[in-house]
Amino acid sequence: MRPLTRIAAPLLAACAALTLASAHGQTTGPYSGPLFDTHLHYNQEAWDGTSGPFPPTEALARMQRNQVKAIIANSRPNAGTQTLAAARETRAAGVTVVPFVRLYRNRDDYNNWFRDETIHEMVLSELARGTASGPYRGLGEFHLYESANANGPVAKKLIALAEEKKLAVLAHVDDVAVDLLMANAPSKGRALRLIWAHTGIGGTPVERVQAMLERYPLLMGELSYRPGLTCEGGRLCPEWRALILKYPERFMVGSDTWVNQRWSAYDEIMQGYRTWLGDLPPAVAQRVAWGNATALFDLR
């Protein structure tokens, strides 16, 4: 009986581990389905229209091999988004482009857009122009390095415009600025579709994130660069896993290719998402990876 006991013990341990994983709704490996990259920049450093380290063929090859089937494209300047929307390589790769108007023509605009009337005029011009993949569906990404600048005259105009035209907003801001932006919307945040880039890149506590999700019914959290999201082995930290399970319809993933190093690391970034998505029940993983963004933009 001793040999049988030696065999049975590890089998029982393995079964116990599988039972524990099942009880926690965990899958047995990385998520393997499609991804929607909800925070992609195609800036002039990557490709300026004639030269650069990441021409459309190279950028789209990275998306294709990672099963990225759709993207929110927002670029500095907006010509980068126009390029992706029109490229035959985009169609060949099977990538759907959801275009956003970025508020930056150059780096100087990062610190001044919220009070610069020419930015408002540029946004109106881009919205009238549209893209080869269809009308713009949102505004941003934009940054507010000081929360109070959410009350800038152009910031107020653009938030009202976004709500009026049912455009989503991709905002790299802190939680205080989210509150101010929502307060400046005609609905006071009830009808503004705000995608919170990084869901608090400064490390907004999970409890505060939860309170904001409860207060603003259309607030979505994009999870690139989010401090404290993952723990050992790239797995979800317990408090974040609990929050995502409580609000499975409110989170999305993105690459944030704001510098060329992020393009170079695109494979690793997407594999990192697949690792922790595998910690979630399959239906929840699919929503965060793909379904929430497709629902937001009514993609078929």
UniProtKB/TrEMBL annotation:
<dbReference type="Pfam" id="PF04909">
    <property type="entry name" value="Amidohydro_2"/>
</dbReference>
<keyword id="KW-0732">Signal</keyword>
<dbReference type="InterPro" id="IPR032466">
    <property type="entry name" value="Metal_Hydrolase"/>
</dbReference>
<feature type="signal peptide">
    <location>
        <begin position="1"/>
        <end position="25"/>
    </location>
</feature>
<dbReference type="InterPro" id="IPR006680">
    <property type="entry name" value="Amidohydro-rel"/>
</dbReference>
<feature type="domain" description="Amidohydrolase-related">
    <location>
        <begin position="148"/>
        <end position="299"/>
    </location>
</feature>
<protein>
    <submittedName>
        <fullName>Amidohydrolase</fullName>
    </submittedName>
</protein>
<dbReference type="GO" id="GO:0016787">
    <property type="term" value="F:hydrolase activity"/>
</dbReference>
